[in-house]
Amino acid sequence: MGSIALSQRRRIALAHAPTPIVRLRGFDQIAGPNGAGVEVWIKRDDMTGGVEAGNKIRKLEYLLAEAVARGADTLVTCGGLQSNHARATAILGAQLGLSAHLLLRTTSPDLRIEAAPLAGNFFLNRMLGATIELITPAQYRERNALMSDVAARLAKSGRVPYVIPEGGSNGLGSFGYVRAMHEVKKQLSVGLAGGKPFDLVVHACGSGGTAAGVALGAAQTEVAREVRAYAVCDDRATFESVTSRILDEARALDPSLPSTVHLTIDDSAKGPAYAIANVEQKKLIVATARAAGLFLDPVYTGKAFFGLVESIRRGELAGSRVLFLHTGGLPGLLAQSEDLADAI
Ligand SMILES: *Cc1c(COP(=O)(O)O)cnc(C)c1O
């Protein structure tokens, strides 16, 4: 691919951007007395599109541009059964005339595609007619090899596959969030969101591409001094190594990116397991909907927001300006309605 600066890199405009930055209403009600001393703004990347919305669109702007440039006709990717990334890939693929082949992880080894509940992201993928293969957690650990096998099979049958890694998280995908920080910079420069840099950007971290892009973009544009990514599954050490690999890939593609970033992975809010929120997290999701009309999901944004609120309750962010990046996930919330019943 060679080294090309971000602004010259091939990209398909897919996100509805700039997304709004709004001040959260009723935040002291949500976070308690310490909430009043913190300025919390929300970057509404849950509004990057219609049903395809969320953070994955920004990464896919770069990844799909490369797929199209290579003449691909089939996108191959992977994720959990309710993966937002797989859904965004399948929808945007359909918009561009590309088919999708999805490897989706399930913990029920006997689950047949026809028997899997038609809910949330999985339902949308079925509606789209995406090719779906259900795989076990053990197979998922070998996802990159499995996707290469799928791509080889497709190529043998005359198709032109393009493989997108889990979450769209590689150096190229991370450019979507470098660009998003340039977007924030522009918004601040015209006086939006208080018109001056933030102390901290906070968001959920599941495969590391968003964290790497936000950290590079924040350092490059100086829109924030620090980035805090709340892990939603694995621990801090795992994500430190994942993000450092993606940071290296991004810098190899664009050497003008900063060599130093200020990124902290925080794994204090990951809850019981991937896609499972604890009772306090579910209660916060419901309280935020009631106090502010803002919907968070139990897989990603609800956990990150919970981590932020806990930190504010401990008095750690007094006097700070915080930008919470709302990365989407609405279909995942709707797929978990029964699991949230105890918090309503
Ligand atoms: C994928 C996703 C994230 C995490 O982004 P990564 O770049 O994979 O770390 C956060 N929130 C939502 C809603 C997502 O779908």
Folded structure, characterized:
This protein has twelve helices and ten strands. The protein is an alpha/beta fold and 344 residues long. Helix 2 (56-69) packs across helix 7, helix 7 (171-189) crosses helix 8 (209-221) and helix 7 crosses helix 9. It starts with 20 loop residues before the first strand and ends in a 9-residue tail after the last helix. Pyridoxal-5'-phosphate is lined by residues 54-55, 84-85, 167, 169, 204-211, 297, 300-301, 327-329.
Write the layout of secondary structure elements.
Blueprint: E1 21-23, H1 27-31, E2 39-44, H2 56-69, E3 74-80, H3 84-96, E4 99-105, H4 120-128, E5 131-135, H5 137-141, H6 143-156, E6 161-163, H7 171-189, E7 198-205, H8 209-221, E8 224-231, H9 236-253, E9 263-266, H10 279-292, H11 301-313, E10 321-326, H12 330-335
Parallel strand pairs: 2-10, 3-4, 3-6, 4-5, 7-8, 7-10, 8-9
Antiparallel strand pairs: 1-2
Helix pairs in contact: 2-3, 2-7, 3-4, 7-8, 7-9, 8-9, 10-11
Bound molecules: pyridoxal-5'-phosphate.
**Approximate strand percentage:** 15-25%
SSE pattern, N- to C-terminal: EHEHEHEHEHHEHEHEHEHHEH
Which molecules are bound in this entry? pyridoxal-5'-phosphate
> Can you tell me the residue ranges where pLDDT is under 50 for at least 5 consecutive residues?
none
- Number of extended strands: 10
Radius of gyration over C-alpha positions, nearest whole angstrom: 19 Å
Proportion of helical residues: 40-55%
In angstroms, what separates the terminal alpha carbons?
50 Å
**Mean pLDDT, as a whole number?**
96
User: Largest sheet, described in full?
Assistant: 6 strands, mixed
Number of helices: 12
Class from secondary-structure proportions: alpha/beta
